[in-house]
Amino acid sequence: MQLGIDIGGTKIEAVVLNENGDTVYRQRYATPKESYQRFFQAVITAITDAREATQSPLTIGLGIPGAADADGLIKNSNILVLNQQPFIQQLEEQLVMPVAVTNDANCFTLSEAMDGAGKGYGVVFGVILGTGCGGGLCVDQRPITGPNACAGEWGHNFLPHYQAERDGAPTACYCGQINCIESFISGSGLERQYFQKFGQHVRVPGIIDMLNKGNPQAAQLWDLYQDQLARALAGIINMLDPDAIVLGGGVSNIKQLYPGLQSRIARYVFGKRCCTPIIQAQHGDSSGVRGAAWLGAQR
Q1: SUPFAM superfamilies recorded for this chain (predicted)?
Q2: pLDDT digits (tens, 9 = 90+) for 108-135
């Protein structure tokens, strides 16, 4: 059986899948962030508990915020105590076995490519539209990470066809760049734009509720958001032309996102035609941890 561990900023989730992909064990823990030692021990505890509960040999895969650099040190993690630590090496030494580790967006994409919405497609690009904007790429059910461990990090490319009069004033991203895609099409990006245009702090559910009630401000912003998303996805198609794009994260649950999206994308695709399936994730919030489990089995 295969153990997957999804490490987030607030919780660590452990799931064991059998060979059919059925969940036979699940447990959650709070994520310690005050010291690396406590964080590391929490991960060991999650693994130990799963082993004891299942009484079975387990492959192990982890999805983490961030990635390992060429020296094996973790970088770009929002769990700050994890950065610049040889986490994977120490984990393998402690457990005396190989452990597969990649970022959470890659795990999401692998899960959907294996037995989710992307099953049966050769090249799958996974998109997470949540607080941030993650991405991952799988080819024949294998995650592609690249030598810089940043394959799929489309959220930190420049928003295509940016125009200040349409998209608003230039926006600095936490990564140090200007006008990153994430600053516009993530859930927090949508909320930021509403405040920038209309001077009110409104969460995404509130914006969609106003949209459903015919609010003209919400309708105006939603039209802009769909166009920004279309521009960003067209860039992926022009570069990779994947067989399917799978959307996850909180924004992907909005029904109004899908009608007409292909035709909007086609405006920006080379050749002015888009036949790429844009599909909502099948496993929802469970995709990350399921993908971690599949990753461990592949390793």
Answers
A1: Actin-like ATPase domain
A2: 999 999 999 999 999 999 999 988 898 9
Which distant-in-sequence residues (6+ apart) come within 8 Å of 71 by Cβ? Answer: none
Q: Which residues, at least 6 apart from 78, have a Cβ–Cβ distance to it below 8 Å?
A: 9, 65, 66
How many whole angstroms separate alpha carbon 140 and alpha carbon 114?
9
Strand locations in the chain, DSSP E? 2-7, 11-17, 23-30, 59-64, 67-68, 74-75, 100-103, 123-129, 133-139, 142-143, 244-248, 278-280
Distance (Å, rounded) from C-alpha 291 to C-alpha 284?
Answer: 12
298 closest CA partner among 138, 119, 153: 138
List beta partners, residue 280. Answer: 247
Q: What confidence tens digit (pLDDT) does each residue in 60-80 have?
A: 999 998 888 878 899 888 888
53 near 47, Cβ under 8 Å? no
Q: Report H helices in 35-157.
A: 36-54, 87-95, 104-115
DSSP 159: P
* Of residues 44, 62, 13, the one with CA closest to residue 291: 62
